C-alpha cells in the first residue's frame, strides 16, 4: 500500500517528517508523499533521512486555490530529486499575504466575542509559514476555550459561523501552472469535501489541465472512490490517494488508512 497525502509539523500535522518516515517504514508502505499545506519544506527535510529507509518517496504539497468562488485543495507531486521550487514558492508567498489578512480577521471576530487572543500570540506560538486555521483552533484549545479542533471549526470558524472569514485564494489555474513549472503533477484533492455531487460538471474544462484525481481518501466511501476512478479513466488522468494524515489533529485518521493500492504509485518521466 501507499499513502500520498500526509501532513507534518511544517503545516498543521503533529508529527515531524522523520517521525512520518519511521511510521511509514513500520507499516511497510511502498511509497509516501509528504504534502504539507502551501509548503514543500517538510518534504525537503524528510529527504535528509531517506537513506535509512527503503520505500519510495515523493516531494509533495497541498495548495489552497480558488475555483468558482470555492476553496479547492490542489496536490502537487514532484520527483524527490527536484531542487528548484522558485516558481512554486512565489505562488505560495502571494497566498501567504491573503492568509494573514484572513487570520487577523478571524482573531478580531474572536476578540469581539470576548476571547482573550491576539494575532501576535498566534504567530509566536506557531511560527510556521504554513500556519492555518487549525493553528487558531489549537491556540484556543491551549487557552481552555475549546476541547478539540473540530469543536472550534463547527462552532466558530467554518462558513456560516460567527468567526468565519473567507480567504482570497489564488486561481486554480495559477496553482496548476506553478506545479507544472517545477516539473510536478497537479492532482485535485478530496473532491467530495467540496460538497459537489459531480466532478465533471463542477470542474468542466479544468479537467484537461490537471494530471490526476485523488480517488482514494480517508473520507471517501467506496462508491465515491469508484466514481472518481471512472472519471480518471475516461479522461486519461492518474489516480492517487492518501489518508490525509495529521496526527492527533485528526485522531481517527491513521497513516495508510485509505488503503491505496500499489498500482497508484507515482512515476516521473525523469525518474
Can you describe what's shown?
With 271 residues, this protein is α/β, with parallel strands linked by helices. It is built from 9 helices and 8 strands. Strands 1, 2, 3, 4, 5, 6, 7 and 8 form an 8-stranded mixed beta sheet that branches. The protein is globular, with a radius of gyration of 18 Å. The relative contact order is 0.18.
Average predicted local confidence, pLDDT: 95
Can you summarize the main beta sheet?
A: 8 strands, mixed
Q: So how many helices?
A: 9
Shape: globular
- Radius of gyration (Å): 18 Å
| Order of helix and strand elements from N to C terminus | EHEHEEHHHHEHEHEHE
Quaternary status? single chain
Give a count of the beta strands, DSSP E runs of length 2 or more. 8
Which properties best describe this structure?
alpha/beta; 17% strand; single chain; 271 residues
What's this model, at a glance?
With 271 residues, this protein is α/β, with parallel strands linked by helices. The protein has helices at residues 17-26, 41-46, 86-112, 119-125, 133-142, 149-157, 172-181, 199-203, 222-235; strands spanning 2-6, 31-34, 56-67, 70-78, 170-171, 185-188, 212-217, 238-242.
Amino acid at each position: 500500500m501507499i499513502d500520498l497525502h500526509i501532513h507534518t509539523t511544517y503545516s498543521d500535522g503533529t508529527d515531524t517528517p522523520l517521525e512520518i518516515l519511521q511510521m511509514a517504514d513500520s507499516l511497510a508502505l511502498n511509497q509516501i508523499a509528504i504534502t504539507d499545506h502551501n509548503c514543500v519544506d517538510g518534504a525537503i527535510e524528510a529527504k535528509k533521512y531517506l537513506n535509512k529507509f527503503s520505500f519510495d518517496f515523493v516531494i509533495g504539497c497541498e495548495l489552497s486555490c480558488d475555483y468558482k468562488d470555492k476553496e479547492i485543495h490542489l496536490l502537487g507531486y514532484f520527483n524527490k530529486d527536484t531542487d528548484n521550487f522558485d516558481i512554486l514558492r512565489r505562488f505560495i508567498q502571494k497566498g501567504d499575504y491573503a492568509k494573514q489578512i484572513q487570520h487577523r480577521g478571524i482573531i478580531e471576530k474572536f476578540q469581539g466575542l470576548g476571547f482573550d487572543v491576539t494575532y501576535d500570540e498566534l504567530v509566536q506560538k506557531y511560527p510556521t509559514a504554513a500556519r492555518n486555521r487549525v493553528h487558531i483552533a489549537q491556540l484556543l484549545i491551549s487557552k481552555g476555550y475549546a476541547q478539540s479542533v473540530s469543536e472550534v471549526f463547527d462552532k466558530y470558524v467554518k462558513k456560516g459561523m460567527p468567526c468565519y472569514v473567507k480567504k482570497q485564494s489564488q486561481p486554480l489555474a495559477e496553482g496548476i501552472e506553478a506545479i507544472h513549472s517545477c516539473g510536478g503533477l497537479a492532482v485535485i484533492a478530496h473532491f467530495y469535501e467540496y460538497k459537489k455531487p459531480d466532478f465533471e460538471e463542477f470542474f468542466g474544462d479544468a479537467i484537461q489541465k490537471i494530471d490526476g484525481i485523488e480517488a482514494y481518501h480517508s473520507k471517501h466511501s467506496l462508491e465515491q472512490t469508484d466514481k472518481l476512478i471512472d472519471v480518471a479513466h475516461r479522461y486519461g488522468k492518474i489516480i492517487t490517494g492518501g489518508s490525509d494524515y495529521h496526527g492527533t489533529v485528526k485522531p481517527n485518521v491513521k497513516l495508510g488508512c485509505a488503503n491505496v493500492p500499489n498500482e497508484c504509485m507515482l512515476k516521473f518521466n525523469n525518474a
